[in-house]
From TrEMBL:
Keywords for the protein's UniProt record, in alphabetical order: Mitochondrion, Ribonucleoprotein, Ribosomal protein, Transit peptide
Name of the gene encoding the protein in the UniProt record: EOG090X0IZW
Region ranges (Disordered): 131-153
UniProt name for this protein: EOG090X0IZW
Biological-process GO terms, alphabetical: translation
Keyword set includes Disulfide bond: no
Xref: InterPro entries: Ribosomal_mL41
MF term (GO), any: structural constituent of ribosome
Major subcellular site: mitochondrion
Family of this protein: Belongs to the mitochondrion-specific ribosomal protein mL41 family.
Length: 164
């Protein structure tokens, strides 16, 4: 069939009829993965019997609970996830906190505040009653005075959260 050529103002327009489909370039199917549900029924059946090593088995984010040894699957009980849910009977708090609640912001605790919260009361009582020994050490130290610095800080932080 001879194409029809039309020329208007120096431009040529070609009109032709084609009986074959347009190729529109080369197709590269290697970049389109066909694992699991994207393949045909025949492809899935072949993958179940003899999986192709280049086509990965996609698990969609689930963790395996065993391993495949030859044609059989070996389940490992330690790999099965165990969901531990606490018993909330008699729990008094509600499970919802409103977004309208003001943010609680606590400034960093200074050493002076820590000393005042834990030790000042006992030291002033010992001083007024004359129960301080040489070098102003207490004769009968209280449990608070025996605390390590980390334990004292933890105790004060729990007291501050109870007040707020």
């Amino acid at each position: 069939m001879e194409p029809c050529v039309l020329s208007i103002l120096g431009k040529q327009f070609v009109r032709a009829v084609s009986t074959s489909a347009c190729a529109c370039g080369k197709r590269n199917f290697k970049k389109f993965p066909i694992y699991n549900k994207r393949g045909t029924k025949d492809f899935k059946a072949r993958q179940m019997k003899n999986p192709h090593p280049d086509v990965p088995i996609h698990t969609y984010g689930t963790r395996p609970i065993g391993y495949k040894a030859g044609t059989s699957f070996m389940q490992i009980d330690e790999m099965i996830p165990e969901i531990v849910v606490p018993d909330l009977t008699g729990f008094k708090l509600k499970p919802y906190v409103s977004y309208r609640v003001d943010d609680v912001v606590q400034p960093a605790m200074t050493p002076e505040e820590l000393f005042g919260a834990v030790y000042v009361k006992k030291i002033t009582e010992d001083f007024k009653m004359g129960k301080l020994g040489p070098d102003n050490q207490p004769l009968n130290p209280s449990p608070e005075e025996r605390l390590a610095p980390e334990e004292a800080k933890e105790k004060v932080l729990t007291i501050r959260t109870d007040i707020v």
